[in-house]
Amino acid sequence: MTDRPDQGEFKRALGLMDATTLVIGSMIGSGIFIVSADIARTIGSPGWLLATWGLTGIITLIAALSYGELAAMMPHAGGQYVYLREAHGPLVGFLYGWTLFLVIQAGTIAAVAIAFAKFTGVFVPWFSASAWIVKVGTFGPYSMPFGTMGPYNVGLHMQNLLAIGSIALLTWVNTRGIRGGKIVQNIFTLTKTGALLGLVLLGVVIGAHAEGVRANFTNMWNAAAVEVRDGQLLSRPLEGLGLCAALGAAMVGSLFSADAWNNITFTAGEVVHPRRNVPLSLAMGTGVVCVLYFLANVVYLLLLPLHGSPDGATVLDRGIQFAASDRVGTAAAQAIFGQGGALIMAAFIMISTFGCNNGLILAGARVYYAMAKDRVFFKRTGRLNARGVPSNALLTQGVWASLLCLSGTYSDLLDYVVFAVLIFYVLTILGIFILRVKRPDAERPYKAFGYPGVPALYIILASLICIDLLFVRPNFTWPGLIIVVLGLPVYYLWKSNQSKTEPAL
Questions:
Q1: Buried b vs exposed e over 42-53: b needs ≥16 C-beta within 10 Å?
Q2: Nearest Cα to 56, choosing from 34, 39, 79, 42?
């Protein structure tokens, strides 16, 4: 089958439920089961752990409700890329698309695929990172001005082979048409959402009588950062500005775990009644996930003490702070089901990550399609196949994500772009104000909730978090800025070549 510019067109096949499951499924991966350990070490109190997730939920929901105006106003393939282009110009739009392709989307796809393979290894030990097929070598660690990068184990082993296989399978499914992709999304999203809700309900029933209640809810607000240094467990009390700085740093993990809600905007060209359904799916999907995330952390605190020892023999001894490999969800499941809980959680995370990657793979390709239509990406990615999907964009994305799996760099890359992701969210919501001035007469079937106060609140809060990260997590900020800035010469090179020839993949 060959691709021709006139071979197909987008099919509006995503209803409200499909769009909502895409939001939920893209958000829930493996982060909710892991990052609370790092938050607990950074902020050091049960109350502030819940405050971190609560504030994350509020910020995320504000952003989603604000995006609804842009989604209803411009229901086109590419979503956020289109909003940034229209509000700030083609350069800013390109820098977002460049960063999305290079790191944000492809890096997340790689990381989620590796997580799927890791937890598959619980059942099939063959899928191990130590079972090398071809090892190119270990590179690094590298000392950089902003921190240490690496080491990176480059090559093919059984674990990343399975990860690449899962990416290839989901990419193939989505090249067959939007209907196949949405069926996979609906099945896996409904399954994992139901399972997470069941875990929360069961955890509340059992946890109400567990040791963690007394340990965590007696004194909830004494914050202290902890770390292990030279074999010693060190604790540093937090208050005032130090507590505010720690809160901002703690939100890195929770914000990234609650990310990808914007992916539905990428697929607006395939949503039925997009001016209504995209804003509604953003509100409902992010609302459901943020509530589930908060309740999941309540359950962690009911089942496990927050404080623990890195040398603890049991899940209760290690606590949330030092759960084995930071797998707080697994520790909570073990507290409920005993040792079998590790297998139950592994199966759950396999389902969660597989469904998450389907949503990411489906949605991301639509941005590269829109960029190609603007002649700032590979020409062939701007074509639809006979089934009405950008198959070349899907394949290009799949190849790059697979290479990141082989490189071993995906984890560092995701850490580096958290700051850049927040900057682009701020710019997008700022675009609401800009477009109200530039296009006052444009059709706006839905208007941003609480405008101008609520969107302005997001801009202020997200900007404060970014400023905080510049000081407390410089290793998470400057690399992300460098990745974005590297897109500048690429953009001007692409534009300068337009009059000669268009790049083709």
A1: bbbbbbbbbbbb
A2: 39
The reply to whether the predicted model has a pTM over 0.90 is yes
Largest pairwise CA distance in the chain: 72
Per-residue pLDDT of the chain (505 residues; tens, 9 = 90+): 333 444 568 999 999 999 999 999 999 998 899 999 999 999 989 999 999 999 999 999 999 999 999 999 999 999 999 999 999 999 999 999 999 999 999 989 999 999 999 999 999 999 988 888 988 877 767 666 556 666 778 888 899 999 999 999 999 999 999 999 999 999 999 999 999 999 899 988 887 766 667 778 888 999 999 988 877 888 999 999 899 999 988 998 899 899 999 999 999 999 999 999 999 999 999 999 999 999 999 999 999 999 999 999 999 999 999 999 899 999 999 999 998 999 999 999 999 999 999 999 999 999 999 999 999 999 999 999 999 999 999 999 999 999 999 987 766 776 777 888 999 999 999 999 999 999 999 999 999 999 999 999 999 999 998 888 888 878 778 888 888 999 999 999 888 877 565 544 4
Q: How far apart are alpha carbons 225 and 185 in whole angstroms? A: 39
Encoded tokens for 15: 């209803």
CA dist 196 and 30 (Å) reads 12
Q: Residue 396 and residue 311: Cα distance in Å, rounded?
A: 45
Paired tokens of 131: 């079972």
Contact, 174 vs 182, CB < 8 A? no
Q: How many CA atoms lie within 13 A of 446 on its CB side?
A: 24
Q: What is the DSSP letter of 6?
A: T
Rounded to whole angstroms, how far apart are CA atoms 453 and 455?
A: 6
State phi, psi for 143 to the nearest 5 degrees: -85, 120
Spatial distance between the Cα atoms of 207 and 297, rounded to a whole number of angstroms: 12
DSSP-derived pairing of the beta strands 147-149 and 152-157: unpaired
Nearest by Cα to 360 from 171, 505, 96: 171
- Sequence-distant (≥ 6) Cβ neighbours of residue 118 within 8 angstroms: 127, 129, 159
Bridge partners (DSSP) of residue 260 are none
How far is the C-alpha of 152 from the C-alpha of 191, rounded, in Å? 35
d(CA 375, CA 386): 22
Reference 52, options 238, 203, 318; nearest CA is 238
As given in the structure block, the two tokens for residue 460 are 């202020």
What is the Cα–Cα distance from 57 to 287, expressed in whole angstroms? 8
DSSP 8-class letter at 271: B
Query: Under 8 Å CB-to-CB from 231, ≥6 apart: which residues?
Result: none
| Closest to 432 measured CA to CA, from 321, 227, 279 | 279
DSSP 14: B
CATH 1.20.1740.10 given to domain 16-497: yes
Q: Can you tell me whether residue 155 is helix, strand or coil?
A: strand
**Backbone phi and psi for residue 127, each to the nearest 5 degrees, phi listed first:** -80, 75
Q: Measure the CA–CA gap between 170 and 394, rounded to whole angstroms.
A: 10
Structure tokens at 200: 């929360």
